[in-house]
Amino acid sequence: MKITVTGRKVNLRDNFKELAAKKLSRFDRVFDEDAQAGVVVTLERNRQTVEITIKSRGMIYRAEATDFEMNDALDQVISALGRQIRKNKTRLEKEIHSAALDQYVQDYLHTAEEDDSEYKIVRTKHFFVKPLSTEEAILQMNLLGHQFFMFRDENSGEINVVYKRKDGNYGLLEPDAE
Fold it and tell me: Which of 124, 134, 144, 143 is nearest to 170 (CA)?
């Protein structure tokens, strides 16, 4: 990484430049040699502001901190940059993994469609559908621990289905004449 240290309204000592280079060297494993880091130290009313900008492969990381001591401000900026880099790296990894997963699912679905065009029923269940009210059907569904329950409506005589929604409420499916 190429590091440029600049002082505005302040004369920088060599030991600060070396310290800044040493602290920025912890990011060498993340950035390649073409990365450019600019460190700017500004003195304003007895307060030191340290600003670091890192440019690498079109990405720009920037952090700034102000403190009474420039070494303390440098520590704060390095910490903030570390958080930014970790956050961005995690986000990129998630995007790469999700893209790979999407590609895998897409490939799997295409091969499954080409190989097996019929749906495969693995189990058939028969049970008596007795007339119930909607409330009784919900109670029965909850007793069984199911997500849905089919029943015959006691008023209309039609087959209905109650189901549990993601928000914790219940839904009712009724047949329509049309």
Answer: 134
Q: What's the Cα-to-Cα distance from 92 to each of 9, 59, 62, 132, rounded to whole Å? A: 39, 12, 18, 53
Residue 38 DSSP class? E
Q: Where does residue 33 rank: exposed (0-12), middle (13-18), buried (19+ CB within 10 A)?
A: exposed
CA 100 to chain centre: 15
CATH 3.30.160.100 residue spans of the chain: 2-113
Report the topology of domain 2-113: Double Stranded RNA Binding Domain (3.30.160)
| pLDDT computed for residue 31 by the predictor | 84
pLDDT tens track for 80-105: 998 888 887 777 777 777 776 666 66
pTM of model > 0.85:
no
